[in-house]
Amino acid sequence: MECCRRATPGTPLLFLAFLLLSSRTARSEEDRDGLWDAWGPWSECSRTCGGGASYSLRRCLSSKSCEGRNIRYRTCSNVDCPPESGDFRAQQCSAHNDVKHHGQFYEWLPVSNDPDNPCSLKCQAKGTALVVELAPKVLDGTRCYTESLDMCISGLCQIVGCDHQLGSTVKEDNCGVCNGDGSTCRLVRGQYKSQLSATKCKIPRDGQSVDLLTCYPPLA
User: Fold this and answer.
1) Residue 79: helix, strand or coil by DSSP?
2) CB burial of residue 136 (10 Å; 0-12, 13-18, 19+)
3) Residue-wise pLDDT tens for the chain (220 aa)?
4) What is the pTM of this model?
C-alpha cells in the first residue's frame, strides 16, 4: 500500500493524513497476525454422542506476547446417544463410586442445574443429604442445564444454539423447528371436527424424524 503522496496544490491535508493512518493500521494488523503460527488440527471430540467439544491450538511466535486467543473450540458428535448410555454428568459422578470419601464408599448421583456454578461436578450420596463437589470442572461437552443445549467447556458455560454452533442464539420455534417461524404446525383448541385430517408432524432432528405435535392443515 502506498504510504503517502507528495502534496500537490489543492490536495487536502486531511486526505493525506487519512492515507498515512490507513497505511499504519494495515501494517499493524499484518504485524499482529504475523505473530501467530497457523491454527493446528482439531482435537478428538470429547464425546462420541450427545454433543461434545473439540479444540484447536496455535502458537505465539513472538518473544513477548500475542494479542488474541491461542485456543478455539467447536462442537462435535451432535447426535443423540442411545438411551442405555445414561446421563453424561451421572457417568462422571458414578466414576467416583469406588473412591472412598472420608473413609466410606458412596453411590453418587448428579446434582444438576446449579445456578451458581453449573460446570462443577457436584454429586449427592444416594440415600443421604450429603452433597460434595467431586471435581471443580465437569468434562467438556457436559450440558450446563438439563433443558438446555448450552455446554461446559474448560469449566465455563458456553451458549449453544439449536444449530449446535457455539455462541449461537438460534432457538427452536413452537413446532420444534430450529430457527423456524412457527408456520409448520398450529395449535387447535376447541371441539375436534372430523373433516380436519390430523397427522403427526415429522420434524427431522439429528438425521431422524420424530413425532412432535399433532398438526392440522392450515385453515382455508
Assistant:
1) coil
2) exposed
3) 444 445 455 445 555 555 556 554 444 444 455 699 999 999 999 999 999 999 999 999 988 889 999 999 999 999 999 989 899 999 999 999 999 999 999 999 999 999 999 999 999 999 999 999 999 999 999 999 999 999 999 999 999 999 999 999 999 998 989 999 988 887 776 655 554 444 445 444 444 444 444 444 444 4
4) 0.67
